Amino acid sequence: MRVLVTGGAGFIGSHVVTALRDRGHEPVVLDVRAGPASDVRNPVVVREALAGVDAVCHQAAMVGLGSGFADAAEYVSRNDLGTAVLLTAMAEAGVRRLVLAGSMVVYGEGRYSCARHGAVRPGPRAVADLDAGRFEPPCPVCGAALQPGLVAEDAPADPRNVYATTKLAQEHLAAAWARATGGCAVSLRYHNVYGPGMPRDTPYAGVASFFRSALARSEAPRVFEDGCQRRDFVHVRDVAAANVAVLEAGSREGALTAYNTGSGEPHTVGEMARALSAAYGGPDPVVTGEYRLGDVRHITADSARLRAEFGWKADVGFAEGMREFARAGMRGA
């Protein structure tokens, strides 16, 4: 299969390219790192890249929470305009198979249950609570403590920042394209991806990158809040394997289907920082109590649908992955 990989020179995209080659496929890379002319927002370049292509793996995006609302236009341009240009060219070229790099951020906060009121959806955390170190969202009905759980794909979307909003818009665009063309579209909603080749020293990188970059400078990783926020850290090779599995199997025509893509092993951010520091042989993490507006407290999801329908499972365990990541090379921003 000849597969166009947008963002194919990036962190996740480069691993997807390797996984495709290992399975005997022919990846075609389109990435702005090759020069401004290779931008996915350039319709001429995209049409040329789609020549002879059987499927598209769309990894190109501006990622991360960002540094405030000032970069909103750039997020929308790169993520949503870029996706619209790509889908338009695919419709014209007759390419009918798409795998989109989605994100668990579309859910907002994760799933919570209250002992009295069952499943509830807390709203954004109040600044006053965060300033006071009250990081756990309370029950929106009675104010009691909540128990976090796993989010399924049918949970309502509730994006809490600009990046999350653009990732949800990408899914809507892909769904509209699939309906209009009869194409097959899948969104793999990635969890916290980490591994070799992760970018360093950039405000848009994930928390694992922040910690690893600090250790490389002989500094202690700085853990926000109280370090007890729960995430699912999934290795980049497992994410790449998920992309290939979906591409090879195909999916439902005329619609977009979303799949959570995580390791299935929730860990706290503090646990991850301690495991990485120990594997690196660096200083112990420092829990700062600081926070970022727009961050959610707990977000872990159930990836059973992806395992059941495509036979995929995460192979790299948490401890093994952290040991590798502690010594792996990183790339510039």
Q: How would you portray this structure in words?
A:
The protein is α/β, with parallel strands linked by helices and 333 residues long. It has helices at residues 11-22, 43-49, 72-93, 127-131, 162-181, 207-216, 236-249, 269-280, 304-310, 318-327; strands at 2-6, 26-30, 55-58, 97-103, 111-114, 118-120, 147-151, 184-190, 192-194, 222-223, 230-235, 255-261, 266-268, 286-287, 300-301. Helices cover 36% and strands 20% of the residues. A six-stranded parallel β-sheet has the order 2-1-3-4-8-12, with helices on both faces. Strands 6-5-7-15 form a four-stranded mixed β-sheet, with no helix packed on it. The mean pLDDT is 94.
Topology of this structure?
Layout lengths: L1 E5 L4 H12 L3 E5 L12 H7 L5 E4 L13 H22 L3 E7 L7 E4 L3 E3 L6 H5 L15 E5 L10 H20 L2 E7 L1 E3 L12 H10 L5 E2 L6 E6 H14 L5 E7 L4 E3 H12 L5 E2 L12 E2 L2 H7 L7 H10 L6
Parallel strand pairs: 1-2, 1-3, 3-4, 4-8, 7-15, 8-12, 9-11, 10-14
Antiparallel strand pairs: 5-6, 5-7, 11-13
Helix pairs in contact: 1-7, 3-5, 6-8, 8-10
Structural descriptors:
10 helices, alpha/beta, 20% strand, four-stranded mixed sheet, six-stranded parallel sheet, 333 residues, 15 strands
